[in-house]
Amino acid sequence: MSSTTSGHVAVIGAGESPYTRHPAAGTTTAGVLGDAVRRALADAGLSTADVDGFGVSSFTLGPDHAVDLAWRLGLQVDWLMQDTNGGASAGGMLQHAVRAVEAGDASVVVLVAGDLMDREVHVEMVRRYNRATAEHLAPLPMTGPNALFAMLTRRQMDRFGLTREHYGRLVVAQRAWAAANPGAVYRTPLDLEDYLAAPTVAEPLGRYDCVPPVTGADAVVVAAETRASGRCARVLAVATTYNTDDQAGDGLTTGVASCAPRAFEHAGVAPADVDVVSVYDDYPAMVVAQLADLGLPGADDLPRLLALVGERDLPVNTSGGQLSAGQPGAGGGMHGLVEVVRQLRGQADGRQVGGRIGVVTGYGMVLYRHGACGNVAVLEAA
């Protein structure tokens, strides 16, 4: 376990390559990653010539690697990394990038994550996600992670007295946020009746409980705060953890539970100070678990906490989250970071909530039953 703090390193630019459910012919992973990089640099007022650090997370970049993509983008860098930890990759890369800037190993670091996700690619990735999946899960009569998270959701419902209506209010609230996000794939209004009437995927999960895979990518620019040409999102703390339960827990507590206290302590803020939150939302149950693990006010009463989210009194996943905006493969975690950065910089047109403190969580890499990676980043409007 490790953490980093800084009052001087910030995210000074962010960009997103447009998401799509059906990528056009000729679309490539390198293409969408490169597009997100260029958009983030333009947002920061910088060019590729300014970049001396580069980090990448992608499931479908192969056979190329981070160095290949850097070369294709015309980057000559002194710091390079490749993260394969899915929904936790954004926080992991951010942690290392902050350290690199603090140490002087790089001055401008671009982090990008995303994938080409057509049906064929998605099916193959689900079958061969890792050795445990290929050898033990794929042979079972179940499709991907839906059945695993259906069981986890049922366990959570029984433990905390939650109903499908509770999850539905969360999903409906995120769709309402998505309506003001032109980058969200699904923006059509959704009400609780629609949610409850949706076809069952794996009981108790319905269609709107399952994240839609999309093609796309997200990127951020990390540098000393003094490099910012305007408002930026100062990185106060990043805390990470891996293999906290050895895949032997019940899945209802994530690695965020051990990260959050450290992150808030290093940042010098409390959960009650948080103004906007992006949590990794592949399923509503994981939103609930991470909100509880963050220790936000009301976390000891989950039905009450979800009522706050449902009424949007607690701004959670204000982009619509992955459940409405879409999950661009390994870019899912970076999507939440980009949204909080936009909120703190006053760039979330139509859905701006204001405030000073933003929190982003990462959850990723289901090794067998549960996500093995977790992280928490605390950022401040500057």
CATH topology of the largest domain: Peroxisomal Thiolase, Chain A, domain 1
Biggest sheet descriptor: 10 strands, mixed
**What class do helices, strands and sheet pairing give?**
alpha+beta
Q: Work out the oligomeric state of the chains in this entry.
A: single chain
GO molecular function: acyltransferase activity, transferring groups other than amino-acyl groups
Domain Thiolase C-terminal: 240-370
Pfam families: Thiolase_C_1
Protein name: Thiolase family protein
Give your account of this protein's structure.
The protein has 382 residues and is α+β, with helices and mostly antiparallel strands. The chain has 2 domains: 2-119 and 215-230, Peroxisomal Thiolase, Chain A, domain 1, CATH 3.40.47; 127-211 and 236-381, Thiolase/Chalcone synthase (Peroxisomal Thiolase, Chain A, domain 1, 3-Layer(aba) Sandwich), CATH 3.40.47.10. The protein has helices spanning 29-44, 66-72, 89-103, 119-127, 131-137, 146-160, 164-178, 192-197, 256-267, 284-294, 302-310, 321-325, 332-344, and strands spanning 2-5, 9-20, 53-57, 79-82, 108-115, 200-202, 205-206, 215-224, 233-242, 276-278, 357-366, 371-381. Strands 1, 2, 3, 4, 5, 8, 9, 10, 11 and 12 form a 10-stranded mixed sheet that branches. Strands 6-7 form a two-stranded antiparallel sheet. β3 (53-57), α2 (66-72) and β4 form a beta-alpha-beta unit. α7 packs parallel to α11 and α9 packs across α10. It starts with a strand and ends with a strand. 55% of the residues are buried. Residues 1-7 have low confidence and may be disordered. This is Thiolase family protein. One of its GO terms (molecular function) is acyltransferase activity, transferring groups other than amino-acyl groups. InterPro entries: Thiolase (IPR002155), Thiolase-like (IPR016039), Thiolase_C_2 (IPR055140). Residues 240-370 form the Thiolase C-terminal domain.
